[in-house]
TrEMBL record:
Name of the molecule in the record: Uncharacterized protein
Principal location: secreted
Pfam families referenced in this protein's UniProt entry, alphabetically: Interferon
Lineage: Eukaryota, Metazoa, Chordata, Craniata, Vertebrata
Biological source species: Oryzias melastigma
Localization (cell): Secreted
GO biological process, one term: defense response to virus
Length: 180
């Protein structure tokens, strides 16, 4: 092998290594996720006792995040992204029940939360994938069924808020290195 060919191959390997190292990681901003948790907490009172019947009917599947444990940052972020995306679709499609018997959330904080949720989803399309498709389908079917029933709609929204808060908080605590 001629020295010029060897040099050319080494140059190609160096270029490939630089390309791989410079590829930006797709990570959600941890500060935004933490702010979202605080806003969800400050929206209103803790999960209402009157909604205890919905507790078992609407529950985020623990297996969705436990399957993403360890060093599987990508899977954790994809599950989180899909959860935010599904919640965004719920907020866009259904009206919050207001007035007597409805949710009594702070509208300013809700608007701030929804803006953050939209940005987390909209500015990170690199996490939009079918990697874990179907993991949250049953969950959102259950939430939708409860929200569509006029008498239990507020409890469906409270369950969604409870689960959003829990998933965001536990993800950022257990997988800190997965966020930027």
């Amino acid at each position: 092998m001629r020295p010029s060919s060897l040099l050319f191959m080494l140059l190609q390997l160096c270029c490939l290594q630089m390309l791989l190292l410079s590829r930006p990681a797709c990570k959600l901003p941890g500060k935004w996720v933490e702010t979202s948790v605080h806003l969800l907490h400050e929206l209103g009172e803790p999960f209402p006792a009157k909604c205890s019947s919905v507790k078992g009917q609407v529950r985020f599947p623990d297996s969705a995040l436990s399957a993403a444990s360890g060093s599987q940052c990508r899977r954790t972020l994809v599950v989180l992204y899909q959860f935010l995306q599904g919640a965004g679709a719920m907020f866009a499609e259904y009206d919050l029940p207001e007035g007597e018997g409805g949710v009594t959330w702070n509208n300013r904080k809700l608007e701030h939360y929804l803006n953050l949720q939209y940005r987390l989803v909209d500015e990170h399309p690199c996490l939009n994938t079918t990697e874990t498709s179907g993991v949250l389908t049953a969950y959102f079917s259950n939430v939708t069924a409860v929200v569509e029933q006029q008498d239990s709609a507020p409890c469906g929204w409270e369950a969604l808020r409870r689960d959003l808060s829990w998933v965001l908080k536990s993800s950022v605590q257990q997988h800190r290195k997965c966020f930027k």
